[in-house]
Amino acid sequence: MIEVKELTKSYGPTVAVNKVSFDAHAGEVLGFLGPNGAGKTTTMRILTCYLSADAGSATVAGYNIFEESIEVRKRIGYLPESAPLYTDMGVIEYLNFMTQVRHIPKSDRKERIRAVIDICGLEDVIQKDIGELSKGYRQRLGLAQSLIHDPPILILDEPTSGLDPNQIIEIRNLIRDIGQEKLVLFSTHILSEVSATCSRILIINNGEIVANGSPEELASQAKGEDIVHIAIRGSQEAIEAELNELEFVSQWTHVETTDDIVAYQINAAQDSDAAEALFHVVVKNGWSLTELRQESVDLEDVFLNLTDKE
Amino acid sequence: MTNITAIFKKEFKSYFNSPIAYIFITFFLGISSWLFFRGFFIQNQAEMRSFFGLMPWIFLFFIPAVTMKLWAEEKKIGTVEILMTLPIRDAEVVVGKFLASFALLAVTVLLSLVLTFSVMYLGDPDGGTLIAGYIGLLLMGAAYLAIGLFASTLTENQIVAFILGITTCFVLLIIGEDFVLFNTPNWLFPIFSYLGLGAHYSSILRGVLDSRDIIYYLSVIGFFLYLSTLAVESRKWR
Asked: Is the pLDDT reported for residue B157 higher than 90?
């Protein structure tokens, strides 16, 4: 439903989005994960036709976002970051305005407003002005606004930011429900959120997509290697020569040398019992071991690994 | 058209949801009545020329206050991002907002008819000049509104929009005044005297509804609405 090809956008000298490509289909909940300033919001703004891109192309529901922008916008529900709403309007008044600008036929308007109020749990605040609403209710109203025309595609920019834990769980459940039949694309910088909600994760960093897959896939991809931290008292040259010889070591990095203790981080093939093998190597060479620690990798490490490189 | 109507209704209501409309109407009527009646009995003539004559200067301060929030506020609180991702063309939003501010102006001008009725009660003013005066008032007001709206698209700060609006209106108003024209080089003279907002207004005030004056105002309105649309669209490639 969404196809993005080599989308690029820069603000002056800063490249916000750099050759981003991905596609997404109905029934998927796509999590956009990345540190702040990674280019998540910019990508979403381009897809919703708020900004244009410098290069690349994208189609949403078969329509080109630059040439058939009105058709694209009809099919997208969009909740920008921090749910900006007209604070001087009433809740119902606002939703009513949205039904008008979304071209919902007069006869269906009441029904649609009713529906989004039920979905988003706004029953308690329908009498109020938006200015009186708490952050949580504003976020829900923002979501209601994006659902009012029953769009096939939903784009949500940090829908859970600033909410309390209960509200976060509610919104997540809501997103999962909606994602059963629609395409939901949402951004976050909270890790647990994507593993809890998404069927697929896009990790974006410095404007580039660095990983794309289901939470399980990404975790197992990273688990393809074990990481061993080791510190040895011995001659650095001899140790490194030995490390290069070892078959199961795919990569090693020298961490630090203090006195005559050398520390390494070693990436080893999975299930190779690397720690044990390394221990034997150390014993064989008559060095002494001061630290040996094997680490398992989860989604958090994937994220840190992919986004930490400067 | 439904888009423009929806935006129009929303903006017009929003004037009355906030104190802006009430403050605007009250102060405008209060100040213009005071300034008018102050001289009215001294002159002892049943005519409204002094009322209409004041308007370019009163509008100068009131109208940018009406338009300053139209875009600046949307940008400040971020609602522009939802608004501009709706299936509406940028130009439709611009026109809808402009019409809403024009409706507020029209309501205010309508209420100021009270002044006219009291003048008609006290004497027998010339009907033709009065009608022409009101048409001129609305045209000039609309031109100010278009300028104010444009100023509002340029910033997210309402105060900046307000001052920018006043300044632009002021410059356009005075370049047609004799005082300025007297000191302009000859080659600029026809341009300035044509572009001046005030000169066309005073010629309408004389009771002559010349199509050139009407075309002038409509072009100013069209030009600044076009600039506003460009400014709104500029978010895309900035």
From this structure: yes
The residue out of A166, A189, A219 marking a domain boundary is A219
- The DSSP output letter for A106 is H
B1 vs A: CB within 8 A: no
A and B: number of Cβ contacts within 8 A = 68
**Which residues of chain A have a Cβ shorter than 8 Å from any chain B Cβ?**
11, 45, 48-52, 70-71, 73-74, 76, 78, 80-82, 84-89, 93, 97, 100-103, 145
Instruction: Quote the tokens at residue A118.
Output: 């039920």
C-beta of residue A112 within 8 angstroms of C-beta of residue A150: yes
CB contact under 8 A, B86 and A103: no
Mean per-residue pLDDT for A213-227? 73
Residue B149's nearest CA partner among B27, B56, B65, B234 is B65
Give the per-residue pLDDT at B167.
96
* Chain B residue at shortest CA distance from A106: B2
Beta strands A288-295 and A225-233, pairing class: antiparallel
User: Cβ contacts (< 8 Å) between A87 and chain B: which residues?
Assistant: 77
The structural domain count of chain A equals 2
Q: Are residues A97 and A179 in the same domain?
A: yes
Which of A26-40, B19-33, B114-128, B141-155 is modeled with the greatest confidence? B141-155
Indicate whether B54 belongs to any domain: yes
Q: pLDDT tens digits for B56-96?
A: 899 999 999 999 999 999 999 999 999 999 999 999 999 99
Express each pLDDT in A99-115 by its tens digit. Answer: 999 999 999 999 999 99
Residues 6 or more apart from A110 whose CB is under 8 A from it?
Answer: none
Contacts of A145 (CB under 8 A, 6+ apart): A77, A79, A85, A94, A95, A98, A116, B82
Residues of chain B with C-beta less than 8 angstroms from the C-beta of A48: 85
Beta bridge partners of A4: A22, A58
Query: What is the complex's ipTM, to 2 decimals?
Result: 0.87
Q: Which residues contact B122 (CB under 8 A, 6 or more apart)?
A: B46
Residue ending a domain, among A192, A219, A246, is A219
Domain that includes residue A246, residue range: 221-308
Dump pLDDT digits (tens) for B185-205. 888 888 888 888 888 888 888
Q: Are residues A94 and A178 in the same domain?
A: yes
For residue A22, is pLDDT > 50?
A: yes
Task: Say whether both A168 and A256 belong to one domain.
Answer: no
Range of the domain at B124: 2-233
B237 touches chain A (CB under 8 A): yes
Tell me whether residues B14 and A89 touch, CB distance under 8 A: yes
**Residue B63: inside a domain:** yes
Same-domain check for residues A168 and A32: yes
Which site among B85, B90, B92, B234 would you substitute to test the A interface, given the most A Cβ atoms closer than 10 Å to its Cβ? Answer: B85
Mean pLDDT to the nearest integer, A68-85 = 92
- Residue B17 to residue A50, Cβ atoms within 8 A: no
Residue in this structure with the two tokens 């025309």, named with its chain if needed:
A149
Chain A residues closer than 8 Å to B91 by CB: none
Gap from B188 CA to chain A (nearest CA, Å): 38
Sort out which chain A residues have CB atoms less than 8 A from B90's CB and list them.
Answer: none
Q: Do A101 and B6 touch (CB under 8 A)?
A: yes
